[in-house]
From TrEMBL:
Origin organism lineage: Eukaryota, Viridiplantae, Streptophyta, Embryophyta, Tracheophyta
Subunit structure: May form heteromers.
Protein name, entry field: Glutamate receptor
Function: Glutamate-gated receptor that probably acts as a non-selective cation channel. May be involved in light-signal transduction and calcium homeostasis via the regulation of calcium influx into cells.
Bilayer disposition of the protein: Multi-pass membrane protein
């Protein structure tokens, strides 16, 4: 054993960590255990890593000074660390100049790249590798806008370009970026949260380190931003360290969604965790309930990778070239260059082994990403609800042999408890706290309540608005990927017309108007109209002559009188013959089958035709006939049809107004000569409602929209949330795809069937005895 020990060559390596932090203590502990475990199982190796530890004291300058000391005065062949991305930036330049690999297991910023310096080895996941997992979650729930909240330093800013690109690729807007200064006070955090509350977006992606993130969520709960309606997504910077967070912080994060690298559970990892807890507790007796996280596993694997690489690189020429070093000097001009640096770097970039964190493989200075686990903060920590992989997207279970296509379906996730202890996710967009609810104007009228009906409850001091148009508008608004609160405001001004209602939208008294409002050229000057969802056009309805048989003896009509007499005589004659023959031989008999079948079918067809086919003929077929006879005609009160009738030269004395289907039917019963009407002109939807009730005495003679009205828009709504309150209505109902979606789901047709055609026509029994 002594011989083996004497034949090994010590190789100095540096360790630069924040020794007074949890990450620094855990990292150093895992590094020392990694080397102890590795050389215990590889006693034949000729090299032994000797750790030279320096405390960076949570300072960028301190980290750079420690690295400079290790390179110049100790001539280390590699450095493990530093703890943060900010500290790594200058250290990378030092390593590049001295050809000393800088191996970090916790610097995650994408700004630190292999392109910047080939001597930087990232033995942890790049922050940019998780943005696709986050964007997949956003896409799965159909959110259209998100606001990133990140630290105002290199760590926070590094992920933003990649996150923005990933969101843009799925047509998600980033209307605002919330930057939290590294030294932000509680008052500054509160001010920023209040600013976010005034915005429409309710989806936030948080990329902060533990201390700053903990304070943010504590204040978010304090101001009510952890209630229902808000969605919070956190990156692995917080998800990986749940065990370190105070229980009060976890309590303030209930309902948050997060992503973190998936580390498979193995027996080797479980055994190491037990050993590590015992050792860490001995070394740090003041730290209670210590829990190992993924950064400790990466520290273990990084130390193992360095030990393997140093052995493979060899022990020859381990010195520095052109080094003119004076003791305790930190003069950059006296830098030497490591002779083993290039070989060691090449070995590190080609290493592959099975580590505690899973498959450990470095390519171009970067640890290759693995699957991400999606977690939901519930209770005392995170609960796994699914996974994301580069090949398959969101999946409920990991299956490396699965050949299914990429998926972003939320059905692949387990049940989620959202902020506010609800299972229903927010739509991600709401009227801001300093905003207003939409005011939707609706007409108030007496008749044709199937379209819009306004009822008031004096006892409750409340107004209820129902009808076909209301149902269609509600269905369209529900399709929006964000919540838009609105109220229906009755427009009950005496003598007001639909033109007046549309003009109120133009004046800004209403954000939109919903009802049986027809698109007219004069109205389009003042408001935009959505796509129509009913037929439009004007029809004329007139009484009809009904030639259908209405007599109790109608069953005699299929046969002529002569045929009835012949049939009767045949019946008597056949009866006599039957009697004459039966009383002697009693044999079976029947007439020719063809005669019987032909007679039966002829009779049934004729009788069925008389009983079912209505031979209706309009009393009047031409408008000119009405003008010539100076007949009275009807129109709906407040309708633009009055203007059309005047254009047709109808005298005002011949124009009769009606307000409901019942009034229209009474006018038809009276007739033109008795103060009634000979014809009525109205729009197709109203005519259909009338005919659904009274179709036995009237018929239409010749059709073709009832849209919603909204303020004029200079440009179409954007792909995300609307830029203004009225634009929310436009986004809901002015796109053809969205209305097609409502129609395909049967929503509009169901409303039409249940609301517009409720009446059934019943024919009285006495009709047959007229």
């Amino acid at each position: 054993m002594a011989t083996a020990q004497n034949s090994t060559s010590p190789v100095n390596v540096g360790v630069v960590l924040d020794m007074d932090t949890w990450l620094g203590k855990m990292g150093l502990s895992c590094i020392t255990m990694a080397l102890s475990d590795f050389y215990a199982s590889h006693s034949n190796y000729k090299t032994r890593l000797v750790l030279n530890t320096r405390d960076s004291k949570r300072d960028v300058v301190g980290a750079a000074a420690a690295a400079l000391d290790l390179i110049k005065n100790v001539q280390v062949r590699a450095i493990l660390g530093p703890s943060s991305s900010m500290q790594a930036d200058f250290m990378i330049d030092l390593g590049d100049k001295a050809q000393v690999p800088i191996i970090s297991f916790s610097a995650t910023s994408p700004f630190l790249s292999w392109i910047q310096s080939p001597y930087f080895i990232r033995a942890t996941q790049n922050d940019s590798s998780q943005v696709k997992a986050i964007s997949a979650i956003v896409q799965a729930f159909g959110w259209r806008e998100v606001v990133p909240i990140y630290a105002g330093n290199e760590f926070g800013q590094g992920i933003i370009p990649f996150l923005t690109d990933a969101l843009t690729n799925i047509d998600v807007r980033v209307p605002y970026r919330s930057i939290i200064p590294s030294s932000a006070t509680d008052d500054q955090i509160l001010a920023e949260l209040y600013n976010l509350m005034t915005m429409q977006t309710r989806i936030f992606i948080v990329h902060l380190w533990s201390t700053l993130g903990s304070r943010l969520f504590a204040k978010a709960k304090e101001v009510g931003m952890m209630d229902q309606g808000y969605i919070w997504i956190i990156t692995d910077s917080l998800t990986d360290i749940f065990n370190e967070l105070d229980p009060s912080v976890i309590d303030s994060m209930q309902g948050v969604i997060g992503v973190k690298p998936y580390i498979p559970q193995t027996k080797r990892r479980a055994d190491f965790t037990i050993r590590w807890k015992k050792k860490f507790q001995r070394d740090n007796p003041n730290v209670l309930n210590a829990e190992l996280n993924v950064f400790g596993l990466w520290a273990y694997d990084a130390a193992t990778a360095l030990a393997i690489s140093v052995e493979k690189a060899g022990t020859s020429d381990l010195g520095f070239q052109n080094s003119n070093v004076s003791k305790n000097s930190t003069d950059l001009e006296t830098f030497g260059v490591s002779q083993t640096g290039p070989d060691l770097l090449e070995t590190l970039n080609s290493i592959t082994f099975k580590g505690l964190s899973g498959d450990f493989r470095i390519v171009n200075g970067q640890l290759q990403p693995s699957a991400y686990q999606i977690v939901n903060v519930l209770g005392n920590g995170g609960r796994g609800i699914g996974f994301w992989t580069e090949e398959h997207g969101i999946v409920k279970r990991l299956n490396l042999t699965d050949t299914s296509t990429y998926s972003t379906s939320k059905t692949n996730l387990k049940s989620i408890i959202w902020p506010g202890d609800t299972t229903s996710p927010s739509k991600g967009w709401e009227i801001p706290t300093n905003g207003k609810r939409l005011r939707i104007g609706v007409p108030v009228k007496d008749g044709f309540s199937e379209f819009v009906m306004v009822t008031r409850d004096p006892s409750m001091n409340a107004t209820k608005v129902t009808g076909y148009c209301i149902d269609a508008f509600d269905a369209a608004m529900k399709l929006l990927p964000y919540a838009v609160p609105y109220d229906y405001i009755p427009f009950d001004k005496t003598g007001a017309t639909y033109n007046d209602l549309v003009y109120q939208v133009y004046l800004g008294n209403f954000d939109a108007a919903v009802g049986d409002i027809t698109i007219r050229a004069n109205r389009s000057i003042y408001a935009d109209f959505t796509l129509p969802y009913t037929e439009s056009g004007v029809l004329m309805v007139v009484p009809v002559k009904d030639n259908k048989e209405k007599n109790v003896w109608v069953f005699l009509r299929p046969l002529t009188w002569e045929l009835w007499v012949t049939s009767f005589c045949s019946f008597v004659f056949i009866g006599f013959v039957v009697w004459f023959l039966e009383h002697r031989i009693n044999e079976d008999f029947r007439g020719p089958p063809s005669h019987e079948v032909g007679l039966i079918f002829c009779y049934t067809a004729s009788l069925a035709s008389m009983l079912t086919v209505q031979k209706l003929q309009p009393v009047i077929t031409d408008v000119n006939e009405l003008l010539k006879n100076k007949d009275n005609v009807g129109y709906l009160e407040g309708s633009f049809v009055l203007g059309i009738l005047k254009q047709l030269n109808f005298d005002e004395t011949n124009l009769k107004v009606f307000n409901s289907p019942d009034e229209l039917d009474e006018l038809f019963i009276k007739g033109s000569k008795n103060g009634g009407i000979a014809a009525a002109f109205d729009e197709i939807p109203y005519i259909k409602v009338f005919l659904a009730r009274y179709c036995s005495n009237t018929a239409p003679t010749a059709p073709s929209s009832i849209p919603f009205a909204q303020p004029l828009s200079p440009e179409p709504p954007r792909s995300g949330g609307p830029s203004s309150v009225p634009a929310a209505v436009a986004d809901a109902v002015s796109t053809k795809d969205r209305f097609v979606h409502v129609s395909c789901r049967g929503t509009v047709e169901a409303f039409r069937s249940s609301t517009l055609v409720r009446a059934t026509v019943k024919v009285p029994l006495l009709t047959f005895f007229e």
